[in-house]
TrEMBL record:
This is DNA polymerase IV. Residues 453-473 are annotated as: Disordered. It is found in: Cytoplasm. It comes from the Bacteria. Residues 7-189 form the UmuC domain. It catalyses: DNA(n) + a 2'-deoxyribonucleoside 5'-triphosphate = DNA(n+1) + diphosphate. Poorly processive, error-prone DNA polymerase involved in untargeted mutagenesis. Copies undamaged DNA at stalled replication forks, which arise in vivo from mismatched or misaligned primer ends. These misaligned primers can be extended by PolIV. Exhibits no 3'-5' exonuclease (proofreading) activity. May be involved in translesional synthesis, in conjunction with the beta clamp from PolIII. Pfam families: IMS, IMS_C. Binds 2 magnesium ions per subunit. GO terms for biological process: DNA repair; DNA-templated DNA replication; error-prone translesion synthesis; SOS response.
Amino acid sequence: MRTAPTILHLDMDAFFASAEQASKPSLRGKAVIVGGLGPRGVVSTCSYEARVFGVHSAMPMAQARRLAPNAAYLVPRFGLYRQISEQVMGLLRELSPLVEPLSLDEAFVDLEAGETAWDEASALLAARKLRDDIRAVTGLTGSVGLAACKMLAKIASEQAKPDGLVLIEPGTERALLAPMSVRILPGVGPATGDHLRRGGISTVGEIAEAGEDELVRLLGKAHGLALYAMALARDERPVVAERDTKSVSVEDTYDVDIHDRVRVRMEVQRLADRCVQRLRGAHLSGRTIVLKVRRYDFSTLTRSETLRGPTDDPAVVREAAARLLEAVDTTGGVRLLGVGVTGLADYTQEDLFAQARAAAAGVEEGASGERVEEAQVGGGAGAGAGAVDVVESAGGEPAERVWWAGHDVRHVEFGHGWVQGSGLGRVTVRFETPGSGPGRVKTFRVDDPLLESAEPLPLVEPLPAGPAAPGEG
Ligand SMILES: [Mg+2]
């Protein structure tokens, strides 16, 4: 194990809820709960103000409403969160090529591998600068832990919350862990925790005292040995970068379903380009192009096409993704699109267009709602989450118009705002932006022609220098 605290763990503070508070000035300092508002919805994230009432993530939404009836209840805006996540992960990749994301807002970074830090002083310097940069670029705060291994870096960032930095000095790990609950160790869930407690072990120190043989007797060889090592703060797990994964993919969840086929095609092209950028960034190429489509009803399917050789050519990936899309019915709307490349290699073949033409298509049908947490979160359509009415879309087909609580709207006269609530044929909108003061509330008919869905505004005004990325905006 290394002797310097050069493994960094970053965890953004109450990420979704903080992004909502930064977007909506009237919610700053208030209890904010983000999650699925339908009958089976659960809390994704809640603000620190909501935690005071006992609300926590993964709690059923109905229970949260009983505990904090006056909180603001919002449907997640994954498109916005993903944009912020990409900014944060970009800052982490400036520190090291070894960045291991655990979720949209959490990652390990090996500072030593990036030659960013080699001892306590340089690690602290890098961590302080990272926290400043995150705040400047995203407007949000993240907590950072530094330690000589992953397990302790994660414990440190938990101790640092909110908006803090904690370094665990190598050599002090065992003393720090000893009084903590066994549940703090990776791999100890409620069942293992109960099992250990029945064996007379409830703290990490008691695992160390019990000894290796007793742990093996209680939990079996593999789990027992692993847990005993963790209790002695022996954690040799390396930080595993994205390039070591078996596929490279990008996907976007849209805050408002896309109905327009032309727009769907454009989005797929944009995703293909982003995917290739990421592929090239990792010095990889791949043989199989994968398109993922989640439709308005949460049915999710993937289509794939395998080339004769690996490619990192944007034109080839774009063409393949476009071909795959042609076989997918998107009438009714699309809420998520993704493009990925698998079958990775670290070289490319020269005759890219020939292989594209010779491509053999493969098809597989994905299970509906494969990413359960996202499916649950948005899944409350028409069940109190938003009012629904039917309007004619540009193509002459009826399209559902759903006013999701918390989502962005624009009114011809009053400008940008967000849906505060809806029902009984009315929608209430608060007109405010990240840079404004708390805004005023107005109520409209749900079919008001002057009111339309809008894209989220950035939390921090981008610097005026440099042209905007094509297709973004
Ligand atoms: Mg977090």
